[in-house]
Specification:
The structure holds two protein chains of two kinds. By secondary structure, chain A is α+β, with helices and mostly antiparallel strands. Chain A has a single domain, classed as Rieske Iron-sulfur Protein, CATH 2.102.10. In chain A, about 15% of the residues lie in helices and about 25% in strands. Chain A is built from one helix and eleven strands, in the order H-E-E-E-E-E-E-E-E-E-E-E. The longest helix of chain A is centred in the N-terminal third of the chain and has 21 residues. Chain B is built from 16 helices and two strands. Classes of the chains: A alpha+beta, B mainly alpha. Chain A: Keywords: 2Fe-2S, Disulfide bond, Iron, Iron-sulfur, Metal-binding.
Amino acid sequence: MKLNRRKFITRLLVAVASIEALFLIKGSVNKVASASATNNLFNAGKASSFDTNKLYPFLTGQFFLKRFEDGGFLAMSFKCTHLGCVVNTNSQTGGFNCPCHASQFNKFGEVLSAPATRPLDYFPITIEKGELLIDTKTPIRRSSFDKSQLTYV
Amino acid sequence: MINKNIEGRSPSSIEKFFLHLHPSKIDTRAIKFNRTFGLGGVCALLFVILSLTGLLLRFSYIPTVEHAYDSILGLKYNTIFGQFIRNLHHLSAKFLIVASFLHLVRVYYSQSIFNKRGENWIYGLLMLFLVLASSFTGYLLPWDQLAYWAITVITQIIEYIPFIGHSLAYLVRGSDTVDGNTLLNFYTLHTGILPLLFIFLMSMHFWLVRKAGGVALPKRDEIQKVDVIPNLVSKEIMLASIVIAALFLIAVFYDAPLLDQANPLKSPNPSKAPWYFLGAQELLLHLHPFFSAVIIPFATALFFFGLPYFKYNNLNIGVWFNSPLGKKITIQSGVIAFVFTFVLIYFLEHFLHFDLWLSNWPSIISTGFIPVLLYVVPVAIYLLFWHKKHQANRTELIMACTSIILSSYISMLLISLLLRGEGMLMIF
């Protein structure tokens, strides 16, 4: 097939448009760029101030902080993995219920009943000078709970 | 074109331009009200009303998270006829969705989408998509709890598309969650890009109707033609007056909803999508998202875009339901699909808990594949029954499929709208 001028120009335009579309899809439209790249970690306070086997909601950080019996911390996002509603705590199961579509999660954030298909996302925790710092900007997806997701003092 | 009317005055250029939407003479059967029900014209009228009221609303609306809600309140309490204009805009948008859906139904069942009208069917579907997109983008703008969570739910559905879902949702929202960026995106789309696209597509749509020879009619040897003015135009003006009067009247008594200001920390219970998407949300409750958010929507879209281009063997263009058998199959399959969808959902809700029974199977099978089979197999048997027993051929069977899809969607929409209360649980 011979490539003439018109075909060449058409294809060039299509290629440019495709690249542009790809950039759009890749999320390169950033409305706000912050001047400093400092990662604002959420400071939840002294690790020793949290009792074991208790759940602490942090609304401003949009997560639940759970301290298990063995002292391990897990910061779970309160956004339902089904359609993004805010889950409520369920005192009967010790887990979470979604008000929108009735998904249920257990205390580890694992799915108890559909329609949600994966456990609640969790946020990485680092402990500095005894204080819990939670990275609320990078939720981590998981398919089930395991011990490696816990953070210990 | 008539140059002189009864009083001997010649029409102005502007009048002539608008009259070019019609031919000068038209088949008497085409102007019978129950041939088109004037639905296309009503859609165009509603678009004009929406544009005018929308332009007025732009004077007071502020598209930022801080001020959006307050500017609506200002419109409501401190602006003369502010609430009325907003009601009119809100109502016209609702009517437009209903009218364009009915227009699609009318065009399809009167067999007016084949041959040279095929291309126009595509334009029509694109415009239906734009109608939904406009409603959806407009839904967020009041920035109340209703708006915020409806948009959250729908944009989260996009995330289920494999590979590009997250990026696409990010592109729509301009962010990871619904926030000021989303508001800006939606405002730009709603008041700029979508109306422009509408004007282009509407022009094409009208022109292609004229090119195809107007409203599709059954073939007949003797054709009786009459002047468009006054025979058709007077009817159009009458229908337009009725629609405008009805809109104004309802807008006086019915206020567009406005809940509390959006609070990203508190989901209302239940959180529902905009009403026209409730069928999709209902589907998502019962099916694994891979089916309900990807396979079924895409297959349905493909089916509808393909409708004019499937191979048919006995098309009767312009004949309602194609044949008496087609009419029978359409009505029966529509009713049966409505009831069957309802019953199946009721059983899935209360008795069939595949996710618990088959909890060690992958969820794509237990909550995806099995419910889909539960629906598809009876439908296939039903269609086969019509084929064997009544010699329904491909044209009628495809028509039955369309009826089943439309009817099931309406059934799901009504269940979600009327029968679901707190926690999205069925109220009985």
